[in-house]
Automatic annotation (TrEMBL):
Its main location: cytoplasm. This is Leucine--tRNA ligase. Gene3D superfamilies: HUPs, Isoleucyl-tRNA Synthetase, Domain 1, Valyl/Leucyl/Isoleucyl-tRNA synthetase, editing domain. Belongs to the class-I aminoacyl-tRNA synthetase family. Keywords: Aminoacyl-tRNA synthetase, ATP-binding, Cytoplasm, Ligase, Nucleotide-binding, Protein biosynthesis. The gene is leuS. One of its GO terms (cellular component) is cytosol. Residues 705-738 form the Aminoacyl-tRNA synthetase class Ia domain.
Length: 937
C-alpha cells in the first residue's frame, strides 16, 4: 500500500461533505469554543499560498478543541460587497453579482481542496439580501438612538424626545453636534415636525452632515482613511482630494473612552492595542477661545498645554477650517485659495506623517489673546487637521517643535516662556521647568500652571477644561453601486427610516455602474428606486409625488458595514426573523479566537468593537467585546525574480553581465525561472507582446540568470505560488504541515518551494509506520516503555504548542516522534491509534485514512484527544558514565532510586570495575546520585 495523497484527500473531503462532519449544532449542554478567521473578500485572483496560513492555524485549533469535547463553531463566509467587483463591472458591463458568484465558487473550490473543517451550513455573504436586511436594521437602530453621557450608553431617541417635551435640552448631556442652541420645553413643543427632525439629527447615533471627506474622482466615491495609502487610493492608486460633501456619519466618537478601556479586557497583541490607542488619541487639556479682531466670530482652540498660553505668537488654522475663507483679506485671498487647492490633494495621513515639509499662508486676519488682548496673526498650515481637535492650533514656538519650525521658516516671533535656552530648539518637556513671562503663571510648573489657567479661563468665560479625542466620527456613505442600500427615503429633504418589517430594501438594477451625468451616485441611474409609503414597497421613480411616494437614498453603505457584525450572524445563520436568537447569542457570546491581518487594526477591528458595544447598549448582545483573543498571522513572503533591461532598449542583460550598464529591473513571472535561477527565454518572449523581439546578453554558460528579492507575495510582482499546484503535486496535508513548519505564526517568513519535499517525505515515512507494500502492519502487542515515552512526549508537546499557538515546533516534534518510532520498530496499535488522533488537527486527510486502516468506522475527528500521562516520562533508570581517575571507561545502567551507598556497591561488584582496578583497592570512590561515578585509584 502506497501513500497516494490525491486519492486519499478527495475521498475524505467527499466523506466530510456528505456526512456534514463539521456541522455545528447549537448544543447548549456542551462547553463552547468559537474560532473565526477574518472575513475574506473573494477576489478574482483566488488564493495564493500566503492566504491559507491563518486558516490552517485556526483549523488546527478548531479540530483540537473538537477532540477535547468542545462544541466548536468554525464558520466561513464572504465579505462580498466591495469596490473591485464594481470596477470590473464598469470595465466589462458584467453585473457585480455575477463576478462575485464566480469568485466565490473559485474560493470555495480552493478552500475545500485544503481540507478546512468549516461549517459551511452557516455560510454568509454580505451581498445576500437575507444577510444585509439585518445590516439595514442595525442602521435603523443607530438612527433611532442617541448617546447619553450620564448613563454612558446609547439609548432610544424616544427617551430624548421625552426629555425635550418635559424640560427642553438645557440639562441634556449628550454626544452631539457642537453649538446646539438651548431651547425650553415650550419652544420644543412649538417646533414644526421638520424643525424637530433637524434638531434630532444633531443627536442621533447616525446622522447626515456636511463632512470633510476623502474624495477619489477616478473611483467616483468617498474613501475612509484606512483605504488610502501614501496619499492615493489603496485600490488602483488613484489621486484623492479633500472636499466637503453631505454624508451619513456614525458617532463612533461617543464610544472613544469605552473603546480605550475595553483594550485592557482582551488578549490582543500590544502592537494592535497601541495602534488603536493612538488612533483614538485621548488628550486631556483645555479649550481656549480666541476672539477675532474687529469681529464677533471666535476661534476655539484645544490644547494639551494650556500652561503655555502666554507663549502664543500666532494661531494656525487647518486649510479646511470653516472660518478660513470668511476671515481672509482680499490681499491674501488668491494665495490662500491656491494653498487650499494644493493641500486638498494630500490625505490626512500624509500630512500627519510629513514632519519635514513646512508650508503655510497668512490669512491677513488677526485674533485677540484672551488674557493680554494683543493682536495675533492667523495663518493656515497643512500640519493642522480639520478632523483633529477644533482644526485650530494656538502656536507656541517655544514649546512645540512644529510651531518652532514654522515660526523660524516664516520669521514669526518666538516668545520664551521657560527658564530654558530655546535658541536652537523648542523645549517640549512637561517637567524640569518653571514659567517665565507668563503673568499670573510665573514661577509655576506644568501641573500647577495648568490647574490655575483652566480655573481662570472658566471664571472669565474664555475657555474650559476638556478631554479630547483624535477619533473622528466615521463617514458611512459611499457613492457607488455594489454595497448595502440605505433603508432611507426623503420627505422635504429630511431622512426617514423604512420600518424594519419591510426589509430588505434590495439593491436595484441599473444600466450603468458609473455616477450619473449630473454627478449623482450610480443608484441615480436606477429607474425603480422610490418608496411608496402606502404600499410599503419600492416603485418606479415616475411615481414620486412627494405625498405618498418619495425618493430613496442614492448612496450605499461602506465596505465595513457588513463586516461590523458578521460574527453574530454565524451564531444562528438560518434565523429569518432575527440576526441571531437571544439564546444563541447568550451561548456563543463572543469569538474565543480570531485570526487575521494586522492591517485591519484601525479599520474593521475598531468599527466592529464600536458596533458590538452599541448592540450591547440596545440589549441585543451580552458582552462588550466581540473578540476575546486576537492573533495576527505574519505574512508569507514571495521570492520575486527580476530581469534587467538596458535603458532605452529591448535588450536584457543576465545578472552576471550587468557591469556598469544602466539597467531597469523588471519583475518576471517566477514560473519562467527554474531552481538554478535560469530564465526560460522562449517562454519569456511569449509572456508579453512587448518582449517578443527581445534580445539577451547571456552568461558564459549560455544561460540567462535572473536576480531575486524576497518581498510581499503579490500578483503584481508575479511571485505568487498557487496552492492548487502544491496540493496537486504533494497533497493538501503537505501544504498544511509545511506552512506551519515555516516559522512562528505571527512572524513574516519567506516561501521556499524547495523545502516542501522534506515535509512530503515525512508523511511518506509516517505512512510506513502503519502500512507496507503488503498492507496494514499493525500489531496488538504491548508497546515498550520507550515507545510510550516517545508517544507521551509528543502528546505533551502538541498540547502545549496548540494551546500556545506555536504550531511550527509541533511539526518538529512529529518528525522526531516518527523517527524514534521507526528506530524502535513500532507497529503497536496502542501507540499508532493515539498518534493518528494527535496528528489529525494538522494533517486531517492522512489521519482519517490511517484511522480507517486501523479498522475504525467513525471519523478520527470525533475521537477524544489522547491524555498525557506524566508517568511515562519519569526515568526509572539512569545510564551512568563510570570514570577512573577522571577518565570514562564504561557505562552502567542503574535504577534511579538507588542511594550513593547502593550505587557504589553495584559498581564495585561489576566485572569491568574489578578488571580496571586489577586487584587494587581504590583510594576514593566519588558518587553523586543521578550524575557522577568516579573511582580514584
Amino acid at each position: 500500500m502506497k501513500y497516494t495523497p490525491n486519492e486519499i484527500e478527495a475521498k475524505w473531503q467527499k466523506y466530510w461533505k456528505e456526512n456534514q462532519t463539521f456541522k455545528t449544532e447549537n448544543d447548549y449542554s456542551k462547553p463552547k469554543y468559537y474560532v473565526l478567521d477574518m472575513f475574506p473578500y473573494p477576489s478574482g485572483a483566488g488564493l495564493h499560498v500566503g492566504h491559507p496560513l491563518g486558516y490552517i492555524a485556526s483549523d488546527i485549533v478548531a479540530r483540537y478543541k473538537r477532540h477535547q469535547g468542545f462544541n466548536v463553531l468554525h464558520p466561513q463566509g464572504y465579505d462580498s460587497f466591495g469596490l473591485p467587483a464594481e470596477q470590473y463591472a464598469i470595465q466589462t458591463g458584467q453585473h457585480p453579482a455575477v463576478t462575485t458568484e464566480v469568485n466565490i465558487a473559485r474560493y470555495r473550490e480552493q478552500l475545500d481542496k485544503i481540507g478546512f473543517s468549516f461549517d459551511w451550513s452557516r455560510e454568509i455573504r454580505t451581498s445576500n439580501p437575507e444577510y444585509y436586511k439585518f445590516t439595514q436594521a442595525i442602521f435603523i437602530k443607530l438612527f433611532e438612538s442617541w448617546y447619553n453621557k450620564v448613563s454612558d450608553k446609547a439609548e432610544v431617541i424616544s427617551s430624548l424626545v421625552a426629555i425635550f417635551e418635559k424640560e427642553g435640552n438645557g440639562n441634556v448631556v449628550a454626544v452631539c453636534d457642537d453649538n446646539i442652541a438651548t431651547f425650553s420645553a415650550d419652544e420644543w413643543n412649538a417646533y414644526s415636525e421638520k424643525e424637530k427632525e433637524v434638531v434630532l439629527l444633531k443627536y442621533r447615533m447616525t446622522y447626515l452632515a456636511e463632512t470633510e471627506v476623502n474624495w477619489c474622482p477616478a473611483l467616483g466615491t468617498v474613501l475612509a482613511n484606512d483605504e488610502i495609502v501614501n496619499g492615493v487610493s489603496e485600490r488602483g492608486g488613484h489621486a484623492v482630494v479633500r472636499k466637503k460633501m453631505k454624508q451619513w456619519s456614525m458617532r463612533i466618537s461617543a464610544y472613544a473612552d469605552r473603546l480605550l478601556s475595553g483594550l485592557s479586557e482582551i488578549d490582543w497583541s500590544d502592537s494592535i492595542k497601541e495602534s488603536q490607542k493612538n488612533w483614538i488619541g485621548k488628550s486631556v487639556g483645555a479649550s481656549i477661545y480666541f476672539n477675532l479682531k474687529d469681529s464677533q466670530e471666535q476661534i476655539e482652540v484645544f490644547t494639551t498645554r494650556p500652561d503655555t498660553v502666554f507663549g502664543v505668537s500666532f494661531v494656525t488654522l487647518a486649510p479646511e477650517h470653516d472660518l478660513v475663507l470668511d476671515i481672509t483679506t482680499d490681499t491674501q485671498r488668491s494665495a490662500v485659495e491656491e494653498y487650499i487647492a494644493m493641500t486638498s490633494k494630500r490625505s490626512e495621513r500624509e500630512r500627519m506623517a510629513d514632519v519635514k515639509t513646512i508650508s503655510g499662508v497668512f490669512t491677513g486676519a488677526y485674533a485677540v489673546h484672551p488674557f493680554t488682548g494683543e493682536s495675533i496673526e492667523i495663518w493656515i498650515g497643512d500640519y493642522v487637521l480639520a478632523g483633529y481637535g477644533t482644526g485650530a492650533v494656538m502656536a507656541v514656538p517655544a514649546g512645540d517643535e512644529r510651531d518652532f519650525a514654522f515660526a523660524n521658516h516664516f520669521g514669526l516671533e518666538i516668545k520664551n516662556i521657560f527658564d530654558k535656552d530655546i535658541s536652537e530648539a523648542a523645549f517640549t518637556d512637561k517637567a524640569g521647568f518653571v514659567l517665565n513671562n507668563s503673568y499670573f503663571l510665573n514661577g509655576l510648573d506644568f501641573k500647577a500652571a495648568t490647574e490655575k489657567v483652566i480655573e481662570r479661563l472658566q471664571e472669565e468665560g474664555k475657555g474650559k477644561g476638556k478631554t479630547n479625542f483624535r477619533l473622528r466620527d466615521a463617514v458611512f456613505s459611499r457613492q457607488r453601486y455594489w454595497g448595502e442600500p440605505f433603508p432611507v427615503y426623503y420627505v422635504d429633504g429630511m431622512p426617514k427610516m423604512i420600518d424594519a418589517a419591510h426589509l430588505p430594501i434590495v439593491l436595484p438594477e441599473v444600466e450603468k455602474y458609473l455616477p450619473t451625468e449630473e454627478g449623482y451616485p450610480p443608484l441615480g441611474n436606477a429607474k425603480v428606486w422610490a418608496w411608496d409609503t402606502v404600499n410599503n414597497k419600492v416603485v418606479e421613480n415616475s411615481n414620486i409625488d412627494d405625498v405618498a411616494v418619495f425618493p430613496l437614498e442614492l448612496n450605499t453603505m461602506p465596505g465595513w458595514a457588513g463586516s461590523s457584525w458578521y460574527w453574530l450572524r454565524y451564531m444562528d445563520a438560518s434565523n429569518e426573523s432575527q440576526m441571531a436568537s437571544e439564546e444563541a447569542i447568550g451561548y456563543w457570546e463572543s469569538v474565543d479566537l480570531y485570526l487575521g491581518g494586522s492591517e485591519h487594526a484601525t479599520g474593521h477591528l475598531l468599527y466592529s468593537r464600536f458596533w458590538n458595544k452599541f448592540l450591547k447598549d440596545m440589549g441585543m448582545v451580552k458582552v462588550e467585546e466581540p473578540f476575546k483573543k486576537l492573533i495576527n498571522q505574519g505574512m508569507i513572503l514571495g521570492t520575486s525574480a527580476f530581469v534587467y533591461r538596458v535603458d532605452g532598449t529591448n535588450t536584457f542583460v543576465s545578472k552576471g553581465k550587468i557591469g556598469d550598464q544602466k539597467v531597469q529591473p523588471i519583475h518576471v513571472d517566477v514560473s519562467l525561472v527554474n531552481n538554478a535561477s535560469e530564465l526560460n527565454l522562449e517562454g519569456f518572449k511569449a509572456w508579453r507582446a512587448d518582449f517578443e523581439n527581445a534580445t539577451f546578453v547571456l552568461e558564459d554558460s549560455g544561460s540567462y540568470i535572473v536576480g531575486h528579492e524576497v518581498e510581499k507575495m503579490s500578483k503584481s510582482y508575479f511571485n505568487v505560488v498557487n496552492p492548487d499546484d502544491i496540493c496537486n503535486e504533494y497533497g493538501a496535508d503537505t501544504l498544511r504541515l509545511y506552512e506551519m513548519f515555516l516559522g512562528p505564526l505571527e512572524q513574516a517568513k519567506p516561501w521556499n518551494t524547495a523545502g516542501i519535499s522534506g515535509v512530503f517525505g515525512f508523511l511518506k515515512k509516517l505512512w510506513k509506520l502503519y502500512a507496507s507494500d503488503e498492507g496494514v502492519q499493525v500489531i496488538d502487542e504491548e508497546p515498550t516503555a520507550e515507545m510510550y515515552k516517545t508517544l507521551h512526549k509528543t502528546i505533551k508537546k502538541v498540547i502545549d504548542d496548540i494551546e500556545g499557538f506555536s504550531f511550527n515546533t509541533s511539526v518538529s516534534q512529529f518528525m522526531i516522534c516518527v523517527n524514534e518510532l521507526g528506530q524502535q520498530k513500532c507497529r503497536h496499535r496502542a501507540i499508532l491509534e493515539p498518534l493518528a488522533v494527535i496528528l489529525a488537527p494538522y494533517v486531517p486527510h492522512i489521519a482519517e485514512e490511517l484511522w480507517s486502516l486501523l479498522g475504525k468506522t467513525e471519523s478520527v475527528s470525533k475521537q477524544a484527544f489522547p491524555v498525557f500521562e506524566p508517568s511515562y516520562l519519569i526515568e526509572s533508570s539512569k545510564e551512568y558514565p563510570v570514570s577512573f581517575n577522571g577518565k570514562m571507561r564504561f557505562k552502567i545502567e542503574l535504577a534511579m532510586d538507588l542511594n550513593a551507598e547502593e550505587i557504589e556497591k553495584a559498581v564495585m561488584n561489576d566485572e569491568r570495575t574489578i578488571a580496571q582496578l586489577g586487584g587494587k583497592e581504590p583510594k576514593k570512590v566519588i558518587i553523586v546520585p543521578g550524575k557522577i561515578i568516579n573511582i580514584v585509584g
